[in-house]
Amino acid sequence: MTALFIIVFAILIFQVIMFFFIRAKRKKEKASSVIEKYNIQSRSDAFRLLQDPNIPETDRIKIEQLYQGVA
């Protein structure tokens, strides 16, 4: 009975750790996504952002790839 309790408790701890690990990974991916960052919903949004001089060059390259349909 004690062994069963230990196994169930270990599985529970593993699930909690995986939950927080996956949550952190998704948060990091969302922060690096230009679609989420600049709320791009159409090609016209991407084109408008390409004309904006305040956009960093690294983001501009990703937006241009999205606009051209490469990514």
Q: What do these coordinates show?
A:
- The radius of gyration is 21 Å and the shape is rod-shaped.
- With 71 residues, it is an all-alpha fold.
- Helices cover 79% and strands 0% of the residues.
- The longest helix is centred in the N-terminal third of the chain and has 31 residues, at 2-32.
- The model has no long low-confidence stretch (mean pLDDT 89).
Beta strands, count: 0
How far is the N terminus from the C terminus? 54 Å
Structural class: mainly alpha
Enumerate how many helices there are, as a single number.
4
* Largest sheet data: none
Indicate the overall shape: rod-shaped
Specify the oligomeric state: single chain
How much helix, percentage-wise, in residues?
Answer: over 70%
Q: Which features does this protein show?
A:
71 residues, mainly alpha
Sequence-ordered SSE layout with sheet pairings:
Elements: H1 2-32, H2 34-38, H3 43-50, H4 57-68
Helix pairs in contact: 3-4
